[in-house]
Amino acid sequence: MKIKIKDLGEFQLTPGLPLKFLIPEIKKISSKLPIGFKHNQEYIDWHYSFNEKDLENLELEPIFTSDEEAFIFLRHTASHVLAQAVKELFPGAKLGIGPPTEDGFYYDIYYEKPFDEEDLKKIEEKVKEIIKKNIPLERKEIPKEEAKELFKNLKEDFKLELIEELPDSKVSIYSQENFIDLCKGPHLLSTGEIKAVKLLSVAGAYWRGDEKNPMLWRIYGTAFFSKEELKAYLDRLEEIKRRDHRRLGKELELFTIEEDIGPGLVIWLPKGAIIRNIIENFWKEVHLKRGYQLVYTPHIALRDLWKVSGHLDFYIENMFPPMELENRAYQIKPMNCPFHIYVYNQKRRSYREFPIRYCELGTVYRFERSGVLHGLLRVRGFTQDDAHIFCREDQLEEELIQVLDLVTYFLKVFGFSEYKIFLSTRPEKFVGSPEIWDKAEAALRSALENKDLEYEVDPGEGVFYGPKIDLKIKDVLGRFWQCATIQVDFNIPERFNIVYIGEDNKFYRPIMIHRALLGSLERFLGVLIENYAGAFPFWIAPTQVKVLTITDRTISYGEKIVDILRKEGFRVEADFRNEKLNYKIRIAQQEKVPYMIVLGDKEEKDQVISVRTRKGEIINNIKLEEFINKIKLENQPEYLLNGSS
Ligand SMILES: [Zn+2]
Ligand SMILES: [Zn+2]
After folding, report:
1. What is the pTM of this model?
2. H or E element that contains 307
3. Closest CA to 465 of 421, 438, 429
4. What ligand is nearest to the CA atom of residue 78?
């Protein structure tokens, strides 16, 4: 029978024989051997065999090690090697599942006691041994009953459970030496094709994620086709750890989340509060300049308000439960929108007033399960940089352009210039007419095109009340973070029955845009911390300059310098302690203070200062005024925009 392989040609193969019998033929015509194949979204490895009847219009697409999908073959195989190693070292172990993941693979394994660091080392050694032996893999399809018998004899209870649930009458098993695993594949030809492997960690995981089931140990690892790639990956992991905002938040005394106060509730410590205050002030200033009006609204409202707004219908599971006072029920706000509707409704509105833009740094509370909470990135109480724009249909596109202009401005100011933008369109269930949806979607599209922003469309992923744009920012490590969202809403204006008087004296319904640009201050600060690894740009650094004395003799000179800088409006700290200079420098560097001013007898005598940056650059003997002029420039929020970082 004939096997077609894209770009490589047609090959003769005896039915029932695995594809690997073609290797000598393929080697004759191609120096590069595929790692495996793909057909109809299914992966097929060299161990696969076909019958004549499978072959109609079958053309296999080859996958090479340079393809992203090759990792699936590699990491599937690596997880089997891991399982084999564990079974050899800990014969009582029972296997759960062992899939590849985005960055590596894991295997859930039951054992009478947890695996510790020492065990992990031993297992990794064994894994490497198995790889070195370059053991070929075999694939077999056997009847379900036979598979049950097999895994029963192997005492693999979890596998038995899985087999029971498989719909087909036959199941596939892979083996290497004495090790057998139930698996759909795909895999490599032999264990030796795994060129680099590393076991990373162990964590408890309930069988099938259900806490009523036994606890298994999930061993995480990763594998690559070269040692260099593995090293690059591990370096990146280290870098991610180094930048973790939870760790830096503690070290730099920015914020804390205390179990005694409540999960997901953030306390801003003085240094974090300063950063937040700077960002808030800047945010307000920019919004006022761009025609927004600032409002403040309460944190709770009568439950009935949330009935009218629809939150009790479609958002209830994200809300904190109601509380009773004087026989009336109140509820904490998960969103600011209904309040802004009341601001709008203070007066009869005319078409001439539009657009109306209300903005608020509004603190909201949403219920998130404790399991998903994560530092500042996933919290239960947070402050949205929220705004609601009311406009006419003919103004929608221009307003969206303005919002996109504002969001890209903000993000660039904070050092983010690469984004991923998603436009989510009409879902199956929606309110409003299809015509208005089409118009709004068209307005969102042309606004994006007007701003020259590339975007992807998520068809049908809009919220039921209107289409939206989501924007993710790219950080220095190439990670994307969801921040801005811009949503058109046809629902809330309807629910609250808000209107304006048009040119013809008739009533019309305004269009409402919800938008948050940074997302929430908590989340944005978390991303900022990780992006800068805590070494913030000068204008937001909690302490901008630290004055260090070399000896006690220069303390009064130091005090004078501190005084001048403070009067100029800079955030300055002094370290006049009787400690070695190197020690003081080290502390200031750990605190990621942008500039250290070092003062000794010589500096005082010449009435100059010596400056050291947190990166270790040194400028000796400059005039204080000269330094002040330099840092005044850096203290501008737009400093990064001008490209001089
Ligand atoms: Zn497998
Ligand atoms: Zn809103």
Report:
1. 0.84
2. helix 303-309
3. 429
4. 1
